[in-house]
Structure formats: structure tokens, C-alpha cells
Amino acid sequence: MTSRTHDLFAFASLVTVAAYYPPASLNLITAAACLVGNIIGSLIPDMDQATNRLWDLLPGGDYLGKFFKKLFLSHRTLSHSFIGFFLLYHLLSWLLPKLLNSNFINVSLVISAVMIGLVSHLLLDAFTEEGLPLFFPLTWKIGFPPLKEWRIKTGKWFEKFIVFPVIVIYLFLFFINNKGVIISILKLSKF
Ligand SMILES: [Zn+2]
């Protein structure tokens, strides 16, 4: 999947989870950090590709991207697995409370938003023909449907004209059907 599709699906996943499990409290900074964290989470798994958009944002990103590609062995290994998920979760749980001031930001909400972005990425990738190496270092890959030929080819017509528009329509319908909850969450953060 392209990063555009991943971003949008991550956002759709975030608002869906937020509507079903509304936060008890939320301020504007936390809401903004959750949105940014969610997008970053959705891009993290593909950081093993030197072309990843996240690298463009960093000075020397080109070089770092190539280094990371070597570190991750090849595309779609550690970063698309259960082990990668737990490593990232523990890294964030250790790092973010040190970086963010918990008087102003609800760090656990931000971590949840990042992890939702990551899970949404893995979920979408399972529908692509490459499959998902969830049990890395085992080489077995998960894919839906099981027949590889029926799965989505990244960046091709099915993703552009079916998957992407379907997520847009889903978001639209979701906002209409869950207006009340969404407005109450927005009110929490005093938008
Ligand atoms: Zn991926």
C-alpha cells in the first residue's frame, strides 16, 4: 500500500477506536499529538524502505534510510511483525514520558494513537500480494485472501480506485452515524 492509503486508514482507525472507547479527558495538545503520532505510527513499518516519507522530514534522511534498510535485513520483516510491535510499544513507553511533559499531554493516549496507526498499517498490508510476516523471524506470511493472486497490488488501480475511495466513504458515513460521540470528544479538547 502507498503511504497515502496508510495515512488515511490510520486516521479512520483512530476515529473509530476513539468513538467506541472515548477518552475520559482530552486537551488540544494531546489531540494534536495523537493525530501526528497516528500518522507517524502508520509510516513507521515502512521505514525499512529508504524512500519512506518520514526520512524526507529528517536531515540526512536519505543516508539514514539506507542504513535502516540494511538494519531491517529487507523490506517487510521485523517492522511488520509481532516482535516489532512489542519493541516499538516498549520503546515508546520508555521514551515518550521522558520527551513529553505529562502535565500538558496525556502520554498514554499518544502511545495508543501511534500503536493504532501501526496496527492499521499491518492490517492493510495483509491484503497486499506480498503478505504480512507477522511471525518474523519465521518466514511464514499471512495474507487475505489466502490466494496471493487475489490480493492487492501496491499503488495499482485497485488500491487507487477501490481501497482509497472506500476508506473515504467509510469515514464520511462514520462521521454521519457517530456525530454525537465525535462532537462530544471534540468538545473535550475545546476545539
Ligand atoms: Zn508496509
Radius of gyration: 17 Å
Overall domain count: 1
* Uncertain stretches: none
Task: For the record, give the distance between the C-alpha atoms at the N and C termini, rounded to a whole number.
Answer: 32 Å
Overall strand count? 0
String of helices and strands: HHHHHHHH
Helix and strand composition category: mainly alpha
Strand content: under 5%
How would you sum up the major sheet? none
Contiguous helical run count? 8
Overall geometric form: globular
Mean of residue pLDDT values: 89
Hetero groups bound? zinc ion
Fraction of residues in H or I helices: 55-70%
Can you tell me about this structure?
This protein has helices at about 5-20, 30-45, 55, 60-70, 80-100, 105-125, 155-175, 180-190. The protein is mostly helical and about 190 residues long. The chain is globular. The model has no long low-confidence stretch (mean pLDDT about 90). Bound molecules: zinc ion. Zinc ion binds near residues 76, 80 and 125.
Task: Write the SSE topology.
Blueprint: H1 3-20, H2 28-43, H3 53-57, H4 61-71, H5 82-99, H6 107-125, H7 157-177, H8 179-188
Helix pairs in contact: 1-2, 1-6, 1-7, 2-6, 5-6
